[in-house]
Every structure is written in C-alpha cells, then in structure tokens.
Specification:
alpha+beta; CBS-domain; Uridine Diphospho-n-acetylenolpyruvylglucosamine Reductase, domain 3; five-stranded antiparallel beta sheet; 12 strands; FAD-bd_PCMH-like_sf; CBS_dom; repeat; Transptr-assoc_dom; CBS domain
Length: 290
C-alpha cells in the first residue's frame, strides 16, 4: 500500500535528523564537528533557517572561547576616576553611552568598583542632595583571561551581574567583558545593508591572499596555514592578532606573525571582525629574512 501522506517524506527526514542528533549525544567520544555537520544538514533540509543555524553555530563557537578572545582591551576601556566630580565625568557617560563603567583610583589597575549609570540619576537631577561617587559603586567581579566564555555566561545569568574585569596572570587589568559581548558572539552584530555578507571562515582571494574571519578557531587556522600558534594563548586567530598588536588596531593596520602578514579589514571598538592574510611569495620570504 502506498503512502498517501504528502508530508511523510519531510517527517522521515526530520526523524532521521533527530535520530542522528540523539546518536551524537549518546555516542562516545562526542565531537563538536559532528554537531556542526548536523546543524549544516538541518539547514540544507530547511528544518532550521539560516538565522537559527547561525545562532547554533555561535553557541558552539562560544564554547571554544576564553575571556581574552572577546574582551574589550584595556586601551579601549572607558573608565571614571573616583575623584572626578559629576561635571567632569558626565561627558564620558554621554560620549560612550554605556550603562556601566569601571571606576578607577589613579589608573586602570586599581578598580574601585562598577558604576551603574541609573544609580546616579536621582543625585544628578537633585543638586541639593550631597553624595559621593564611592557610595554608589557596586563590587567589581574579577576573572582571569583564561575563563571559559560559556561558563562566564552561566555565572552572569545565575549571579545577575553584567560586567566582569579581566586580569592577566600577574593581576594587572587587561580588559573587561560584558554579557552583551557574549550574546553578540551568538546572535552576531547588527549589520546594515552596506556590510558584506559573511561567508566561510577562510576565503581565498588570490594565490597568496586570503580573507579570514577573526573568529576562526585557532586549530583550523593552524591547519590551513601550517602555522604553530599556541592554542593555550587564544582560541581564535583574532585573539592571537589582538595580543600581538597590544592594542585595538584600526582598519588598515598590519602586523607580521610567523611569516604571514595580517591586515585588519574590519573591526569595531570592541573586537576584530575580519582579517586579510597575505602569504609572502618565495622571493618576499628571502627578503624578509635578510
């Protein structure tokens, strides 16, 4: 007897897809690449749309990242000095338009606490009330650069805080990270109609020129370019390049690492987005070694 159900084919496909997911979660060992294959197949079968695929991939990417990979670097941190009067730090609030600011004592290595902008509204609008900035501060949450981003997101949600100060192995402040920074990795930036569509992590533009997403996993980059960047130092190639610059580079800045030239082609105030990677020709290699 034939199957008269017009949706039976799609139902079988969905069942097969779900069975494969169940198999991956119950099999040993589990591999992220298996999940990525399932997500791609589900998208190709129209079981999930491209936006859902992107968010699922974002979740998997976040699971590989450390705080140092997506933090706002120290040089880009907007801070308030604890001794500044309202008239002096109000322009900082207006210029940056953040909801939270680290409050420092003399320099960025001495964080006194976190100021939530809404906490000063009643005082700013009522000049007769006496107040001191130190009395409005919330405790600063301190995390190491090596903190896993997925674990940090869980802590953000459970403990209901939104910002953490990132410190290096010596206790110096190296940056900050917010819950919005993590969510951006999952749902992506809000792009306008002039932004280029994202493609593969690594795209070949010429015989020696490549366009590379800054979020390309470091193991994938090392395999593609036969490099030996330390995966303990960063989880993505963008993290490696950012550390090498020592500051948030602007569009067009270049740096040479392991014989490759990295050019920043897209970045915002918080992170690197896209890199152009140039592999020097043999003659260029010889000149670079002189």
């Amino acid at each position: 007897m034939g199957d008269d159900n017009p949706h039976s084919g799609r139902g079988s496909a969905a069942k097969s897809w779900l069975e494969r997911i169940a198999a991956i979660f119950t099999a040993e060992p589990q591999q992220v690449s298996d999940l990525e294959d399932i997500i791609a197949e589900a998208n190709s079968r129209n079981l999930i749309d491209s936006d859902t695929k992107g968010m699922l991939q974002g979740v998997l990417d976040v699971s590989k990242m450390r705080a140092r990979d997506i933090m706002v670097p120290r040089s880009q941190m907007a801070t308030i000095d604890i001794d500044q009067p309202l008239a002096e730090f109000l322009p900082i609030l207006l210029e940056n338009n953040h909801s939270r600011y680290p409050v420092v004592n003399e320099d960025k290595d001495h964080i006194e606490g976190i100021l939530i902008v809404k906490d000063i509204l009643k005082y700013a609008l009522t000049p007769d009330i006496e107040w001191e900035l130190k009395d409005l501060l919330r405790p600063a949450v301190i995390i190491p650069e090596s903190k896993r981003v997925d674990a940090l997101l869980k802590e953000f949600r459970q403990k209901r805080y939104h910002m953490a100060i990132v410190v290096d192995e010596y206790g110096g402040v190296s940056g900050l990270i917010t819950i919005e920074d993590i969510l951006e990795q999952i749902v992506g930036d809000i792009e306008d109609e002039h932004d280029d569509e994202e493609g593969d992590d690594i795209r070949k533009l010429g015989s020696n020129v490549f366009m590379v997403s800054a979020l390309t996993p470091l193991d994938e980059f090392n395999e593609s370019f036969s490099t030996g960047f330390d995966e303990e130092e960063a989880g993505t190639i963008g993290g490696i390049v950012l550390h090498a610059f020592g500051h948030m580079p602007a569009k067009g800045e270049t740096i040479q690492l392991e014989g490759l030239v990295f050019k920043v082609t897209k970045a915002n105030s918080r992170r690197l987005v896209q890199l152009q990677v140039i592999r020097p020709k043999p003659t260029e290699d010889a000149e670079l070694q002189r």
